Amino acid sequence: MNTLQPFAELASADLQNRLAKMILIGTVAQVDYDTARVKVKVGDWLTTWLPWLTNRASHDLNWQALEIDEQVMVFSPCGDTAQGVVLGSIYQQTQHQLVSDIAVEERQNIHRFKYQDGTVIEYDRAKHKLKADVNGDVEMNVNGFDGSEAKGNLKVTVKENADVSVGKNMTAIVTENVVITAGKSASVTASDNIEVKAKAILLDASADITIKAGGTLKLNGANISAQE
């Protein structure tokens, strides 16, 4: 009788068990946002708290938390699930609707982030088009902004109020025409001087024009005429 056979069978069973647990697929059951760990449900079994994989986690940091019921893959070195790491998410049939608005033949060129509130950040490398559809406010704070150029047309539409605040000087250079249209009033205010220079200046009002000067009012011209 081979006295080592029971041990060999036990070792073989342990090896098979470890191999079976090296790669598991389950769904996120619990999330600890403080420690960046989750518990994953695999069948009827629940793992211990496991870290999830991210792109960067040192001086440069990337953060995007997993969610409850998200399908994930767990890798356990040597089949030890206590040392497991959640590698990432797996597409499920219910997630296909996230790109259902993109033609199948175009999806290979699309890089998209779509959030639960409907916000979409998307780049189409074939059309060279970046799209940001934000379902809320956008806040950007920068120390400087050097170099912004649109080689084609640029259109900015604001459906409510727009405020631009400049701490020092502001220069706007337009090589052709500038059109400013206000549905109601337009106001230009300066604490010091306002200077307008042009080859010709036309003031056309369908009603009255009022000019007020707290000091001297001067009209200098080669010809000055007034007609009814």
Automatic annotation (TrEMBL):
It holds the Pfam family Phage_base_V. Gene3D superfamilies: 6.20.150.10, Gp5 N-terminal domain. Residues 25-91 form the Gp5/Type VI secretion system Vgr protein OB-fold domain. It comes from the Bacteria. This is Phage baseplate assembly protein V. The lineage of its organism: Bacteria, Pseudomonadati, Pseudomonadota, Gammaproteobacteria, Alteromonadales.
